[in-house]
Hints:
Number of helices: 17
Mean pLDDT: 80
Distance between the termini: 77 Å
Shape: elongated
Helix content: 55-70%
Oligomer: single chain
Radius of gyration: 36 Å
Largest sheet: 2 strands, antiparallel
Strand content: under 5%
Strand order of the largest sheet: 1-2
Structural class: mainly alpha
Order of helices and strands: HHHHHHHHHHHHHHEEHHH
Amino acid sequence: MKAYGKCLLNNVPIEATNLLKKLCTSYKPNRVEVTDPMETDKKTHRSRPEEFIHIFVHQKAKLIEFLEHMTQMFPKSSSLLYNTLLELYLNNAAHETDVKGQVIHEKKALDLLMNVEARYDLDHAMVLAQMHHFKAGILFLYEKAKLYQQILHYHMEQNDYTNVIDTCKKHGAQDPSLWVQALSYFARKESNCKDQIIEVLSHINRGNLMSPLLVLQTLAHKSTATLAVVKDYIVRRLQLEDELIAKDERLIRQYSEETEKMRQQISELKTSAKVFNGSKCNLCSRPLDLPAVHFLCLHSFHQPCFEGYAENDNECPICTPENKKVLDIIRSQEQAKDLHEQFHHQLERATDGFSVVADYFGRGVFNKVVHGL
Length: 373
């Protein structure tokens, strides 16, 4: 059958192609409608289109027509059909002498890549696009695979400054390191990149992506970089540092005042009697009457309310959740302290310090744990 089909294609290509289309699509008993070709093979007697690809060896145009028909009829066709069709589009574009014809073939290839139902192999498609220098396809596949670094490097290799900045703007939220690489890239250029560097620095400053010292070290490699290029960045960083210092000083004063108040309260609790003036239950908000339960935190409760709500007879049910948070933080800090001390002790005595560091790194010793109060 395959040899006969090849002979037909060489002699009557139009009729043979139409016959193969029917063989691969038309035999549907009771006109059962299916869209999955694998499921179709089970429910019908149609032929598999993959088996006829090789007989179109000298009829590339007819093979494109056949594959386009099959992928339109069965969007979930195998990756072999889509991969072959993509390769044919790109080959036609590469050998097309007319610019308009080349654009048409490349548009077909890009439409295939952007088709959400197309089951082409991503890696295979990327290799084909790179082999044929298909820029639009390469960038689309990089973005589809979330290879943002490769997109940036592609534009860097083309010295496309505008797209370097645009790539950082588009994907910088997903990968902030793109801005850092962009700064390093422009710092290596001998041409005048003042505007690009200023824009990159503004984003680095906004996201606090690099320390000022590292920024200056990076720009030190650029012979054309002057103080005017980084003046605004340095001024903004100094202003930000001043604001952070002022904020820290305010917090220090606030915590010092709160600590002093706590010390006075502790002293009063130890030396003088405590008068409870609560007139309402802090749980039900009704007037307080006997029997009642009072705590030194000045929360008061009806005894039935307290017994029905409290988990512990010795703890205020309102203050307990916040107290547990504080205790958890203290325990976590104590455990981290013991673990760090143990790490330094083992590191000083170990013959292979690297293995000790690797072991503790895997156990999370160097992780920064932040607890919200």
